[in-house]
Amino acid sequence: MKLSTRSRYGTRLMLDMAEHYNDGPIRLVTIARRQDISVKYLEQIIIPLKKAQYIKSVRGPKGGHALTKPPEEITVGEIVAVLEDGISLVECSHNGDFCQRSSFCPTRHIWLEASRAMFERLDSITLADLLAKTKGA
User: Fold this and answer.
1) Structurally, how many domains does the chain consist of?
2) 11: which residues sit within 8 A by CB, 6+ positions away?
3) Taking CA atoms, which of 25, 71, 92, 101 is between 20 and 30 Å from 136?
Protein backbone atom coordinates (compact mmCIF):
# COMPACT_ATOMS: atom_id res chain seq x y z
CA MET A 1 0.00 0.00 0.00
CA LYS A 2 1.14 3.52 -0.72
CA LEU A 3 -0.03 6.54 1.18
CA SER A 4 -1.08 9.41 -1.02
CA THR A 5 1.02 12.52 -1.46
CA ARG A 6 -1.68 14.32 0.54
CA SER A 7 -0.85 12.25 3.61
CA ARG A 8 2.90 12.46 3.20
CA TYR A 9 2.96 16.20 2.50
CA GLY A 10 0.22 16.85 5.06
CA THR A 11 2.30 15.15 7.73
CA ARG A 12 5.30 17.28 6.70
CA LEU A 13 3.11 20.40 6.88
CA MET A 14 1.90 19.51 10.36
CA LEU A 15 5.40 18.54 11.50
CA ASP A 16 6.78 21.89 10.31
CA MET A 17 4.03 23.67 12.23
CA ALA A 18 4.78 21.55 15.28
CA GLU A 19 8.46 22.40 15.09
CA HIS A 20 7.58 26.11 15.12
CA TYR A 21 4.61 25.72 17.47
CA ASN A 22 5.76 28.43 19.88
CA ASP A 23 6.64 30.93 17.13
CA GLY A 24 3.07 32.04 16.45
CA PRO A 25 1.15 31.75 13.17
CA ILE A 26 3.17 30.66 10.14
CA ARG A 27 2.51 31.68 6.56
CA LEU A 28 2.09 28.87 4.03
CA VAL A 29 4.73 30.41 1.80
CA THR A 30 7.25 29.96 4.64
CA ILE A 31 6.31 26.30 5.10
CA ALA A 32 6.34 25.75 1.34
CA ARG A 33 9.88 27.09 1.14
CA ARG A 34 11.14 25.03 4.08
CA GLN A 35 9.45 21.82 2.91
CA ASP A 36 9.92 22.29 -0.83
CA ILE A 37 6.20 21.87 -1.49
CA SER A 38 4.19 24.24 -3.69
CA VAL A 39 2.02 26.79 -1.91
CA LYS A 40 -0.92 25.80 -4.13
CA TYR A 41 -0.69 22.19 -2.98
CA LEU A 42 -0.39 23.21 0.68
CA GLU A 43 -3.50 25.37 0.23
CA GLN A 44 -5.41 22.25 -0.87
CA ILE A 45 -4.02 20.04 1.90
CA ILE A 46 -4.73 22.54 4.66
CA ILE A 47 -8.47 22.72 3.95
CA PRO A 48 -9.45 19.32 5.42
CA LEU A 49 -7.02 19.82 8.33
CA LYS A 50 -8.72 23.13 9.15
CA LYS A 51 -12.16 21.53 8.78
CA ALA A 52 -11.09 18.81 11.23
CA GLN A 53 -9.91 21.59 13.58
CA TYR A 54 -6.22 20.68 13.69
CA ILE A 55 -5.22 24.04 12.18
CA LYS A 56 -6.58 27.53 12.65
CA SER A 57 -6.04 30.59 10.48
CA VAL A 58 -5.06 33.96 11.88
CA ARG A 59 -5.67 37.09 9.80
CA GLY A 60 -3.65 40.24 9.75
CA PRO A 61 -0.06 41.36 9.20
CA LYS A 62 1.26 38.78 11.65
CA GLY A 63 -1.23 36.20 10.45
CA GLY A 64 -0.79 32.72 9.12
CA HIS A 65 -1.69 29.27 10.33
CA ALA A 66 -1.19 27.54 13.66
CA LEU A 67 -1.92 24.19 15.25
CA THR A 68 -4.98 24.16 17.50
CA LYS A 69 -3.38 21.63 19.87
CA PRO A 70 0.13 21.03 21.13
CA PRO A 71 2.26 18.58 19.08
CA GLU A 72 1.97 16.04 21.91
CA GLU A 73 -1.77 15.79 21.28
CA ILE A 74 -1.79 15.21 17.50
CA THR A 75 -1.00 11.78 16.09
CA VAL A 76 0.16 10.80 12.64
CA GLY A 77 -2.86 8.49 12.46
CA GLU A 78 -5.22 11.42 12.92
CA ILE A 79 -3.53 13.35 10.12
CA VAL A 80 -3.57 10.41 7.73
CA ALA A 81 -7.20 9.58 8.56
CA VAL A 82 -8.27 13.14 7.72
CA LEU A 83 -6.28 13.31 4.50
CA GLU A 84 -7.16 9.79 3.29
CA ASP A 85 -10.86 10.18 4.17
CA GLY A 86 -10.84 7.46 6.81
CA ILE A 87 -8.86 4.56 8.13
CA SER A 88 -9.58 1.91 5.52
CA LEU A 89 -6.97 0.41 3.25
CA VAL A 90 -9.79 -0.63 0.93
CA GLU A 91 -13.34 0.70 0.71
CA CYS A 92 -15.03 -2.65 1.38
CA SER A 93 -13.39 -3.20 4.77
CA HIS A 94 -15.47 -0.49 6.48
CA ASN A 95 -18.33 -0.15 4.01
CA GLY A 96 -20.14 -3.44 3.54
CA ASP A 97 -22.43 -1.90 0.92
CA PHE A 98 -19.48 -1.06 -1.33
CA CYS A 99 -19.20 -4.58 -2.73
CA GLN A 100 -21.86 -7.22 -3.21
CA ARG A 101 -19.38 -9.88 -2.01
CA SER A 102 -18.79 -8.17 1.37
CA SER A 103 -20.94 -10.53 3.42
CA PHE A 104 -19.05 -13.64 2.34
CA CYS A 105 -15.66 -12.39 1.14
CA PRO A 106 -12.79 -13.94 3.13
CA THR A 107 -10.28 -11.25 2.14
CA ARG A 108 -12.40 -8.42 3.55
CA HIS A 109 -11.37 -9.43 7.06
CA ILE A 110 -7.69 -9.33 6.13
CA TRP A 111 -8.00 -5.74 4.92
CA LEU A 112 -9.91 -4.77 8.03
CA GLU A 113 -7.23 -6.28 10.30
CA ALA A 114 -4.45 -4.64 8.30
CA SER A 115 -6.17 -1.24 8.51
CA ARG A 116 -6.57 -1.58 12.26
CA ALA A 117 -2.94 -2.61 12.75
CA MET A 118 -1.58 0.22 10.63
CA PHE A 119 -3.68 2.89 12.33
CA GLU A 120 -3.00 1.49 15.77
CA ARG A 121 0.69 2.10 15.09
CA LEU A 122 0.18 5.51 13.44
CA ASP A 123 -2.07 6.59 16.32
CA SER A 124 0.74 5.79 18.77
CA ILE A 125 3.09 8.35 17.14
CA THR A 126 2.60 12.03 17.90
CA LEU A 127 4.10 15.01 16.14
CA ALA A 128 6.18 15.55 19.29
CA ASP A 129 7.54 11.99 18.95
CA LEU A 130 8.59 12.68 15.36
CA LEU A 131 10.25 15.94 16.36
CA ALA A 132 12.18 14.17 19.09
CA LYS A 133 13.42 11.58 16.59
CA THR A 134 14.56 14.24 14.12
CA LYS A 135 16.48 16.01 16.86
CA GLY A 136 18.18 12.78 17.91
CA ALA A 137 16.46 12.51 21.28
Assistant:
1) 1
2) 76, 79, 80
3) 25
The rounded distance, in Å, linking the Cα atoms of 35 and 20 is 13
Helix (H) or strand (E) holding 58: strand 55-58
Range of the domain at 36: 5-134
In this predicted model, what pLDDT tens digit does every residue of 79-105 receive, in sequence order?
999 999 877 776 655 555 656 665 667
- Amino acid identity, position 1: M
CATH number, domain containing residue 89: 1.10.10.10
User: Of 35-44, 88-97, 106-115, where does mean pLDDT reach its minimum?
Assistant: 88-97
H helices present in the chain, as ranges: 5-19, 28-35, 39-51, 76-83, 91-94, 106-122, 127-134
Q: Distance between CA 99 and CA 35 in Å, rounded?
A: 39
Taking the C-alpha atoms of residue 15 and residue 45, their distance in angstroms, rounded to an integer, is: 14
pTM of the predicted protein model? 0.86
Q: How far apart are alpha carbons 32 and 16 in whole angstroms?
A: 10
